[in-house]
Amino acid sequence: MRPRHKKNLTKRLDACKDNIIHIENDARDYREVIKEQAWIDTAAYFGNDNPIHLEIGCGMGTFIATLAARNPQINYIAVEVVADVIVVAAEKVREAGLKNVLFVRVDAIYLPKYLAPRSIDRIYLNFSCPYPKNSYKAHRLTHRKFLALYERLLTADGELLQKTDNRRFFEFSVLEFSAAGWEISDLCCDLHAEPERYPDNIITEYENRFLKLGQPIYCLTAAPKR
Fold first, then answer.
1. Within-domain flag for 13
2. Per-residue model confidence as pLDDT tens digits over 133-167
3. What's the structural domain count of the chain?
């Protein structure tokens, strides 16, 4: 679903300029782009060396704003490519007065150019686009080409958490993690059937929509084999 164009988008983005880094699209092959280094100085931005967690596809920002408020000792980078979406997320964080969130507007495939190796302690993939057509499977954020990039970014004991409502996408993800040599330490096929197992779960905008439709939420935790 394409997001509606926000009124006064340019003005609203400008009001959030201290919270968002905008990166222009690069037409070159991503494998060439990520050989370059233009790493974001996260220590300078956050003013500390706290652990960094990364959400790829932050949507309207409910998840990242709630998580950052709960964990002021952790820094968060939220990635989103759509301007009409990232501006809403950034406004939520600004209104909450949170200082531990940085938004980066960029395609996830280019992240290793902008984030230093072994700098991320946790990656969140919440309700990523499943790209249901098989011909588009390489665009899925759990495709092995993305997993190779995440492995470069994660710290030695880093991990990835995924949630989705799409069973086929979830099954695809499990197979990709296995093929890429990752270990799955936790897997659940109906998150809300076991609330005591996930007491810290934050319900995202998409998650709430799917719950109202009675759809199960699938989740897992995975990490590269060490």
1. no
2. 999 999 999 999 999 999 999 999 999 999 999 99
3. 1
